[in-house]
Design brief:
Layout (H helix, E strand, L loop, with lengths): L8 E4 L4 E9 L2 E6 L8 E4 H9 L3 E4 L12 H18 L8 H15 L3 H13 L44 H16 L6 H12 L15 H8 L5 H5 L1 H8 L16 E8 L4 E2 L7 E3 L2 E7 L5 E7 L5 H12 L2 H6 L18 E5 L6 H10 L2 E5 L8 H14 L27 H16 L11 H5 L6 H11 L9 H7 L2 E7 L4 E3 L2 E4 L1 H5 L2 H7 L3 E8 L2 E8 L5 E6 L12 H46 L4 H4 L3 H43 L4 H13 L1
Helix pairs in contact: 5-6
Length: 695
């Protein structure tokens, strides 16, 4: 049972008061309120107070009011001695000093003796009792003087005396002057980082201390030093520079990112950046495709890079999901996809961590939270634009730049904005796949490289002589601090971290992004026949953008079914990623659009020519009068006209052929003459003519 003793501080929840115990005797507890300033001691029943403590209605509170016995200035010590001379004999007379009648007589006598007011002496008593009943509790609390948030008022100019004579001695700064200063700071300083104190000061003088007609400065106005002194209370640095810069560069630095990680897999950090290198297209190295997006996932305990992802898309949950899939999967298979053969010992990082520190950006969504919750991972959402909160993974980006920037063609150079500097983008030669290979080699080298010293020395690490190498720290942690990494079946992991969408069941198959799939259920239940005879419908699917040869039908009961590509024209895209498929389909649309333009132009030209022909025919028709025979036209008359027209067409065709043949016959005769002239023997020529005549 807790014994109530003097000087104990009690927080009485029921009355919302905090008191200090002054005296305990005969079932009575004398206390003084620490909430109601300048209050006087009063009595409580010991048993009732003890019961409140046992039942939780009153809580014992730590005493944070420490009265130091040293470090007082001469003025403070004089004030302490002066107050003690007034109340010292009285407060040591216990318990009489707590009696209200005796205290009243003491106050009356001391007022006459010292000339102090009753209130002044009562404040000495309260300061002594509330401060822990020590002499040094009587030290004046200068920091609490004055009304909170209010400036001191005076009838004379405050501040140090003027050192040098000048025309403007300054003004006594009152409420009106402070309002002008506040207005100038908020309008011309807080909201504009390019403006200075001096500019705000000048604008204040122009607005309030300058004649509006003549523009002459007033005879008396606040000095710049006065402005600067009072302006400090109105400056909001966070508003001036913005919360992003303030939190990143001006906040207090406390704690460490390592403090939440006791072993491998305790905490992963994920972040993304745009790599400082330009890439080219896979199929056309002349086409520059820009800078890639790069994800790094780092284990906080060991500083091991446990996952990565590169792409040309903007940062989003979909790209972050791909990075997490790489992180949780087997690295031997991952490197093999990029033509790099490693052993599991070189990169032994697979499995699910306990917690994941992410940006307050692409990983904050209902979909991402649901998936992460489904995998049993705790998500620690860090605010955006706060790299200091994920300093470990952020530093990996800097290391990559330092290691590769000078070597990779197309890297962003520091002098790129200088006049006459070469355009580094023109040096780009790497594709996304080749850049990914570079990243893998960097990660393997980083994980095996010494960090110089342990990020946070631990007795066990030093005892076991573990070198400050991420791979060594990982292996040691797995052996002695294991238990946080969890293994999941690869297919379930893929589905959990796959993108979600809907596909359409059509007569040709399950259609998604112009690709067609089928599954056993679709074949056994004749989905495609039903879609052809009735109507199509939607199904929920999961897919991996980097592996579009199959998708997963989500049945809705926690199960799934694999859908594979059908044997139709979509086989053209086998082995391609969704990004590549979309690009190819886009190119097809561009070509189709170009051909469409040509076809449309041809159709327009043809239609225009036909219209001209019809117009000429109509004009010709108008020149011939309509005969009575035309009005009585019958079938026999049409046949007769048809035969006559056919004969005319034959004759015209024969004439046209003769006109075409005549020039050709003339050319043949000329060629024969040339041939005859070139014959060396006249007799042979004559014989040839005779032979021709005999024929």
């Amino acid at each position: 049972m807790f014994q109530i003793q003097p000087n104990v501080i009690l927080n009485m929840l029921s009355s919302e008061d905090t008191v200090r115990v002054l005296y305990v005797d005969n079932g009575i507890v004398v206390v003084i309120s620490l909430v109601r300033k300048d209050s006087l001691p009063y009595e409580l029943q010991y048993d009732e107070l003890q019961c409140d403590i046992e039942e939780g209605r009153t809580v014992i509170q730590a005493d944070c009011s420490v009265a130091f016995a040293f470090g007082f200035s001469e003025a403070q010590q004089r004030a302490i001695d002066r107050a003690w001379d007034v109340i010292g004999l009285f407060v040591t007379d216990i318990p009489d000093c707590y009696d209200s009648k005796i205290r009243s007589r003491f106050l009356t006598a001391k007022c006459k003796e010292t000339g102090l007011t009753r209130t002044q002496i009562q404040r000495y008593l309260y300061r002594y009792w509330a401060g822990g009943m020590t002499k040094h509790a009587l030290c004046p609390q200068y920091n609490k003087r004055g009304a909170p948030g209010k400036a001191r008022q005076s009838t004379k100019r405050l501040g140090r005396p003027i050192q040098y004579p000048r025309n403007n001695p300054g003004l006594q700064i009152g409420p009106k002057e402070r309002a002008f200063i506040k207005e100038a700071i908020e309008k011309h300083y807080t909201k504009h980082t390019k403006y200075s104190f001096r500019y705000a000061y000048q604008e204040m003088l122009k607005a309030h201390y300058t004649d509006t007609v003549t523009g002459t400065l007033a005879e008396a106005y606040p000095t710049e030093n006065q402005f600067r002194y009072h302006a400090q209370q109105f400056v909001d640095v966070k508003k001036r520079v913005g919360s992003v810069v303030y939190n990143k560069d001006m906040r207090g630095i406390t704690g460490s990112s390592r403090q939440d990680a006791d072993g491998p897999g305790d905490l992963y950090q994920i972040d993304t950046t745009i790599a400082d290198v330009y890439l080219v297209a896979h199929d056309d190295r002349q086409a520059i495709v820009g800078r890639p997006q790069l994800y790094f996932v780092t284990d906080v305990f060991s500083r091991m890079i446990v996952g990565f992802y590169t792409c040309l898309e903007s940062a989003s949950w979909d790209t972050a999901r791909a990075a997490l899939l790489n992180t949780f999967s087997d690295k031997v298979h991952l490197c093999h996809q990029y033509g790099i053969e490693i052993t599991e010992d070189q990169w032994p990082c697979k499995g699910l961590p306990r917690a994941l520190a992410v940006d307050n950006g692409e990983l904050i969504s209902k979909a991402s939270n649901a998936i992460i919750d489904g995998l049993g991972i705790t998500v620690k959402n860090e605010p955006a634009w706060r790299p200091d909160l994920k300093g470990i993974v952020e530093s990996r980006f800097r290391l990559l730049n330092l290691a590769t920037k000078a070597k990779l063609p197309g890297s962003v150079l520091p002098d790129f904005q200088q006049r006459g500097a070469p355009d580094y983008r023109m040096d780009a030669i790497l594709t996304l796949t080749e850049f990914t290979q570079v990243v893998i080699h960097f990660i393997l080298e980083h994980n095996s490289r010494s960090m110089g010293q342990h990020p946070q020395p631990m007795p066990d690490l030093l005892k076991d002589n573990v070198p400050p190498i991420p791979l060594a720290l990982w292996r040691w942690g797995i052996r002695y601090r294991a238990g946080n990494l969890r293994q999941v079946a690869p297919e379930l992991l893929q589905i959990a971290l796959s993108q979600r969408d809907q596909a359409t069941v059509t007569a040709r198959g399950i259609k998604f992004h112009s690709l067609y799939y089928q599954c056993p259920t679709a074949l056994t239940e004749n989905w495609f026949s039903k879609a052809r005879t009735k109507h199509s419908w939607k199904i929920d699917i999961a897919y991996q953008p980097n592996a579009m040869d199959c998708i997963y039908w989500l049945k809705g009961n926690g199960t799934h079914e694999v859908c594979v590509r059908t044997g139709d024209s979509s086989q053209l895209y086998i082995g391609n990623t969704l990004e590549e498929i979309d690009w190819l389909q886009q190119q097809q649309k561009i070509q189709k659009a170009a051909y469409t333009d040509i076809s449309l132009q041809s159709s327009i030209d043809s239609s225009t020519a036909i219209d001209e022909i019809i117009a000429k025919a109509e004009a010709a028709k108008k020149t011939i009068p309509l005969t009575p025979i035309r009005n009585k036209l019958g079938a026999s008359e049409i046949r007769k006209n048809r035969k006559a027209e056919a004969e005319k067409l034959k004759r015209r065709s024969a004439l046209a052929q003769n006109e075409i043949a005549a020039p050709n016959l003339q050319k043949d005769a000329e060629r024969e003459c040339v041939s005859l002239k070139s014959t060396s023997s006249y007799d042979s020529l004559f014989s040839a003519l005779l032979d021709e005549e005999d024929d």
